[in-house]
Amino acid sequence: MNIILRKKRLVISIKSAHLILGFFVILWLNAGNFTYIVDSIPSFMKLFVAIIWFGLSCYRRKTYLYYFLKTSLLMIGFVAIIFSSMLLERRAYYNLYFQAFLYIIIIFALFSYYFYFGEKKELNLICKVYMADMIIVLFHTFFELINNPILVRAISTSAESQELLLNAEIPNGIGGYSFCYALVFIMILFTLSDGYLKNHKIFKGILCISVLIFLFQAQITLAFIIYVIILLMSVFLSKIHTRIQLVKKILLTLLVVSILIQYQNILQWLIGIADESMAQRLEELLVFFQTSGRVTGSDSQSRLELYQISLQAFLQNPIVGNWGNRPFGCHSSFLDMLAAYGCFGVIGIVGFIRPLFLAKKRLIGKNKKALIYTLIIFSMLACINVVHVSQITLAVVLIIPITLKYMACGDENKE
């Protein structure tokens, strides 16, 4: 009897330690409020914690390693390609992104365990802790942006530019551009999925409006536009069960048509009330629409030129690209992979989105559709922006799939 009790205690202890280590790794990669703690911890210790978590995952679930390799083998292969280019003294891509891809493999390891083997209570705890972290960062960042307008420009620039603007690093617990995009993807759970916060409509509405205001204040223009599109999709794609819902959909359709007709006047009004940085971007957007994209000297035109650099580099040598050397534009994850490694970059592209394809097979109904929308939006964003950063990847590859799985578990229990 004592031996049985000891074994049970050992199992519980290992399970608890494994979950705590999982929380540590997730919050570290999310780079939110946990930065107050982890910034003082050396990188090798954080990686060591991730390795211990991985070892416990293999110990707890005998088939875990199989699912990890099934999910991550292509991405591991792409990381090996990046490493090989460094050995050949072609270091540009390696210096910029090697660490980011190592973090992505860690996120794939988290996905491989919690999506396939995570218990309902574990998934619930992870979702709640992550959501709390995101909400706290959202409101903290919002009030900091109001108090310090220069921070608006700093959060969307490089670390070097941040120091020039602020004469210091961005304070801990403040969300940057990657936080804004991660937030947009997480809101898919509240708008396009089936039943998340279904019984808390007031809180859900307040949160949706708060995110809209925050993204406008943060002046990450593309994130704001994507979020507005997601909100519109949530209404147009919803099923009509009552006359009130039908009236709402008709009114919204009329509103959208009116906005499309009057978009120039609306953009000019927004330019008038926006801060300097956002007003400049909105003005560039207005000119871009008015000239059908034929505009020079704007941020949009600069992006198009950077995309062209990556595309030309790929077309000049489509087999191996520059094998990790420049030129590539650094403004598109997928185009940069192709520019840097040619056809071998396809390994990275397919490997990057593979977890979402695997997760899609295990979901049904509206939850499956929500993941498909996530996959489409994420893939499109990866073509026009850099998305292989830990915050965005964590939200898309880990949090959204395991939350949808948790919701599916709840639906099964109801049945």
Describe the structure.
With 415 residues, the chain is mainly α. It has one domain. 78% of the residues lie in helices and 0% in strands. The chain contains 20 helices and no strands. It has helices spanning 2-30, 35-38, 43-60, 64-87, 92-117, 120-147, 150-154, 159-166, 177-186, 188-191, 201-218, 221-236, 243-261, 263-273, 276-290, 299-316, 333-341, 345-360, 365-384, 390-414. Helix 17 (333-341) packs across helix 18. The chain starts with a helix and ends with a helix. This is Lipid A core-O-antigen ligase and related enzymes. Keywords: Membrane, Transmembrane, Transmembrane helix. It comes from Faecalicatena fissicatena.
Brief digest:
With 415 residues, this protein is an all-alpha fold. Helix content is 78%, strand content 0%.
Could you give the topology of this structure?
Blueprint: H1 2-30, H2 35-38, H3 43-60, H4 64-87, H5 92-117, H6 120-147, H7 150-154, H8 159-166, H9 177-186, H10 188-191, H11 201-218, H12 221-236, H13 243-261, H14 263-273, H15 276-290, H16 299-316, H17 333-341, H18 345-360, H19 365-384, H20 390-414
Number of domains: 1
**How much is the average pLDDT?**
84
Number of strands: 0
Largest sheet: none
Question: What are the low-pLDDT stretches, counting only 5+ consecutive residues below 50?
Answer: 411-415
Rg over CA atoms: 22 Å
Judged by helices, strands and strand pairing, the structural class is mainly alpha
Proportion in helices:
over 70%
Features:
415 residues; mainly alpha; globular; disordered C terminus; transmembrane
